[in-house]
Amino acid sequence: MAARPPPPGRSAAGPPAHGSERSGGHVTSAAHEPQDRALVVLGAGVMGVGITTLALAHGVPVTLVDTAEGVLPVARGRIREGLRMAQMMGALPKDVTTGELTEVTAPAEVDWAAGPAAVIEAITEDAELKAKVLAEVAPAVTPGTPLISNTSSIPIDELAGAIGRPEDLLGTHFMNPSYLIPTVELIRGPRTGEAALSATRELLDRLRRKVIVVNDAPGFVTSRVLHPMINDAARVVEEGTASVEDVDALMRGCLGHPTGPLRTADLIGIDNLVDSLWVLYRRTGDEGCRPCELLLSKVRDGHHGRKSGRGFYTYERAM
After folding, report:
1. Which parts are annotated binding residues for NAD(+)?
2. Contact 226/242 with Cβ under 8 angstroms?
3. What is the mean pLDDT of residues 169-188?
4. If both were cysteines, with which of 17, 120, 147, 153 could 99 make a disulfide (CB 3.0 to 4.6 Å apart)?
5. Start and end of every 3-hydroxyacyl-CoA dehydrogenase NAD binding domain (predicted)?
């Protein structure tokens, strides 16, 4: 995230959550009841937008932070589209008023005094950058508030030293799109406290997610199993054994994979997949996690998958 100075803006992604007030460009609550407290999401990329969409759909107000030029207006449109698509697919609760979205361009503009329910960092899969962002916001966050890194592969304890409060730090691994996939991997670091774990579970329960708690390790469970498999699938194509379409068709038809590994790569984002594979390779030494040349070439060419309009497949429009 690169700094820029404009004042905070607000998006009308939906009507305000019950009991919330507008004050000074931020979401506040007269009584600061837990159900009215905002979720702060750091980073308005694919996962930040997905998590924000999920929270808003379940009545949780969100303060979305991104300092990069022009990112927030694009994110606002994607959130609206996500809410529309999820509504069409019957994935949203019908008995909840959509939460209010506040956009700010720097962490200093967040209304920290209102006491957010939790902070979720959802920037790119880079341990150094994640640690830097968490270190920047931690002093402003009330002790006991969960500090959550949304990551597909980076061990949580690697980030714990950055914040000085390792008991408040834990990880989530939301799948993409977050508002459609009901299960969330919740990562407990070796120093994560029970209070932070319990508060995060309560938040995820409110978002109507099924939570599975796992211990800290590179890639946790889902990425440690899935990402090397996708790497192997890409290698099969690279070696000329089968086409992209045939690899996915065989995995769907013979093994019950819902979409096929290569279409899944497009949904994850091939750039994100490569970042995750490098994390796994450098921390485990497993050669199966070293990204194959086909994946690397797609990243070099900007063919990142669904979000860029082209990856292993071509899409009518980027999302």
Report:
1. 43-48, 66, 125, 130, 152, 176, 307
2. no
3. 95
4. 17
5. 40-216
Q: Which two tokens stand for residue 63?
A: 């303060």
Longest dimension (CA), the chain: 63
What is the percent of the chain where pLDDT is above 70?
89
Mean pLDDT for the stretch of residues 213-222: 98
The span from the CA of 230 to the CA of 277, in Å, is: 10
Q: Which domains does the chain have, with CATH numbers?
A: 9-215 (3.40.50.720), 222-300 (1.10.1040.50)
Rounded-to-integer distance, Cα 82 and Cα 90, Å? 12
Could you list the residues known to form a binding site, using ranges: 43-48, 66, 125, 130, 152, 176, 307
pLDDT at residue 21, as a whole number: 32
CA-nearest of 14, 139, 1, 148 to 71 is: 1
Instruction: Find the length of the chain.
Output: 319
